Amino acid sequence: MKKRSISLTVNGTVHDLEVPVHRTLLQVLREDLDQVETKYGCGTGECGACTVLVDGEKAILGCLTLAASMDGKSITTVAGLEKDGQLHPVQEAFIEEHAIQCGYCTPGMVCKSVSILAKNPKPSEEEIRHNLEGNICRCTGYVKIVQAVQRASERI
Amino acid sequence: MSDFKVIGQRVPKVDARRKVTGHQEYADDLRMPGMLYGKIVRCMEYAHAKVTKLDLSQAAKAPGVVKVLGPKDVTQKGYNSGVLDLMVPEPVGQMLGDIEDQLVFTDHVKFQGDAIAGIIATSEEAAERAAELIQVEYEPLPVYLTAEEAKKPDAVQFTPLKPGNLAFALPIQMFPDGAAYAWGDSEAGFAEADLIVEETFTLPKVKQCQMEPHTYVARYGDGGRLNCWTSTQMPKCIHNKLARLFELPMSRVHVIQTTVGGGFGCRLGMIAEPQVCAMAMAVQGKPVKVSLLREEDWLGSESRHPGKYKMKIGFKKDGTPISMDAHWISEGGGYYTHASGVQFTLGAWLAGTYKWTNFRFKGDRYYTNTTPCGAYRGYGNPQNNFAMEQLIDRALNQLGIDKVEWRKKWHKTVGDDGWCMGVTYASCGLDECLDKGAKAIGWEDKIKKYAKQTGSKRRGVGVAVMTHTSGAMPMLLEHTTCTVKINEDATAELIFSCSDLGTGAHTSLQQIGAETLGFPLEDVHVRAQDSDISGFDIGAHASRTLYVGGSAVIEACEDAKRQILERAATALEANQDDLVMENKKVFVKGSPDKSIDVATICYQGVYNWVMPDTGNWIGIPGQIQGYSSYFAKHNSPPWSACFVEVEVDTETGQVKVLDCVAASDVGKAIHPPSVEGQVEGGIQQGFGQSCMEAMIYDEKGLCLNNTFADYRMFGPSDMPKITNILVEEHDPFGPYGAKSAGEGGQVAPTGAIANAIYNALGIQFTEGPITPERILKAIKEKGLQA
């Protein structure tokens, strides 16, 4: 089994790892680093539950990303958005708008929302909806999630 | 009732912060020392076959493998993943004829994805690699995908207990009138009718698509105890069923609920708990985790019931609904599961909506070689809505009667028989729902405006209404227990078994607890995770958690409050009836200075000594705990009306939903954002069932779309603007006047969107989902209305 040495920063902590080349970022996060806040939903890049941020603003899918390709990168998971007990504005907005039901899509949905606002802090509703395609929520009908991104946009 | 302090407030949900930071723990997040990983080996090549050879020896030798299990290595007892057998009295159970036809691992594969063996290894990857080394040979059997095929005389029998592969039909012992749920004489009704319309509708097989795949951990150890961590909707039923299956006393079975990552019925009863527990019992002392892959979850867990719905309805010229005759024939999949339940409730809700003078319903369910059908939000009601609401609109078009006005005139209401004859409706706000909904969507204007259209894009508006239930009384057991434990600092723990599927149920129950006790919300904590701690609850199904659970919480909290007041009366030397409890103080009415802190009473209840100088206790000793073992007294049906406006592109067949208004009578909205969330999520699922979603099988019974890429759902850009109107018609039986909100949200949108498309094109679609392909085909065949 071919392995590669990588240096991966997760939520500010540097990890030097030996990873099999076929191992996904999601597997490394959940199984090797025990950071289970990022979820498995489909394993094939269709649901967005495993969305994390690269360099704090670009959303990628942990299940489709080989960990070996992330050498030297900085990953932020939903747990890393909270700083010293202070929630990220997107997290606050998700709570305030009641945009969370079962919560399983939430870590990915929050990370995706952060990436949307990083690209454009004042997106239109249509842009928000368009950019959320790829992150499936089966509980909310997306209504309150879209409202949460709008609310967060007013604070960023 | 506007003097509520906590109820009706838009407080943050109890679990919101944990979920938004990723700290909420789901089953797949569990880590335990020495954990092993199980893989359920499923037959993916055939939908119907006999296993003629199963050689596990190579797999057993693979790196990391701890144990392999075939059908003979586990209990030979059968089970039924459904739970209806626990919910009805024995004589009723005998009439319904539920059977236990599932085995942990089978050698007769009845659908693609049926479990044939298990592998336990030191890692998930090792278990998966070993599964590839299993040598299995099959003798293919004929595949039956429809009721017509399954009931042929020479068809292979799924079980000798159900001849003709007829899993269930309404029993003649229960319905002597031709095994039909009926009143009046439907044939005589049709003879009197001025207009009769009839149609056969085809309902698709749709999937709950909960975001968290089924995942479990089980460990057999701790002195012979079977522990099972599961995100089930029904922990206490699972507790009973696992004890029965593995022949253990219930005291040796421990069910720990993990966070439910979406339910919608897919975790109702047992799913893979039998396989996981069987694996754990084979490697005693070691925890075994089984995480289903998405594509495996899709096939291996239950779906909604698809089927053919023959429906005939008759009207007088003035719109009087004189007769209804309906026959539902379902293709229920490879095992019995919920055969009796869904076929029964379909008829019940069909009967419960409108005032048919004569009514007749029959419901059958056949075995087929597809994923077994079980519970999915609405439990038969969305199927009704798609068929009945469309057929009524067809008749109303011919009669020239307005669709809103007709529904207002002919829906059942207070005093009428509900979905179960003999239990009458106690509240109904449907007229207000229809009035407010019609106004919000601009019904009258749009109906006129869209009557004559030209061009390639056609618009339409549609309406549908529904009534549902709050719990399943009197048909099924409706029992929830609750203990409220008052701590010595006058804070409280509410202990019960109801799962929160993400609906906000625990938040609402916390609000009810705080309101009843008169405590601040933050002083009431909800605990519902452990069969060792919690008492009985039938489970989160039938839209009952808030309705029945809320009443149990009220009763338990009132019990605790009564004890506090009794002690206060003694301390204050006052009559209990003269006491008022407010802001955690008890005082004598009119004498606010004569008071005692609730915290003092609670503290003395816990910390108490006989004082050496007086020989007396300080106050009254004994920790205050309230308890309720609550049996629901009614089923307080909720009501709703859904209005949808669509634009259909007649060149591409695409349907764009422009607007949606949902007006829902849920009684008192305990936690309004949770109610809104249920309505909004229900719309996404209802639209999906009517316009996009269907599990598709090839002729061999192999599923062609068991992934999110191939099974399309309404996404964020597909969803319209939603106007969410809550009509809070107080219900005399509901906790603080509340009725259910969870399941009902999906029902009316299914019919409303179909009726909007009908209104836009003048073509009615009898086969769901109404895909662009079907729209184009129909336009080509039938042409557009003028």
Alpha-beta classification of chain A: alpha+beta
The CATH topology assignment of the largest domain in chain A is Ubiquitin-like (UB roll)
Could you give the order of strands across the largest sheet of chain B? 3-5-1-13-10-11-12
Largest sheet of chain B: 7 strands, mixed
Name the CATH superfamily classification of the largest domain in chain A: Beta-grasp domain
CA-CA gap between termini of chain B? 52 Å
CATH fold naming of the domain at 380-473 and 634-782 in chain B: Aldehyde Oxidoreductase, domain 4
Helix content of chain B: 25-40%
Which percent band covers the strand fraction of chain A? 15-25%
**What is the topology, as strand order, of the major beta sheet of chain A?**
2-1-5-3-4
Radius of gyration of chain B: 28 Å
Helical content band of chain A: 25-40%
Low-pLDDT sequence parts of chain A:
none
| Largest beta-sheet details of chain A | 5 strands, mixed
Name the beta content range of chain B: 15-25%
Counting copies of identical and different chains, the oligomeric state is heterodimer
Structural class, judged by helices and strands of chain B? alpha+beta
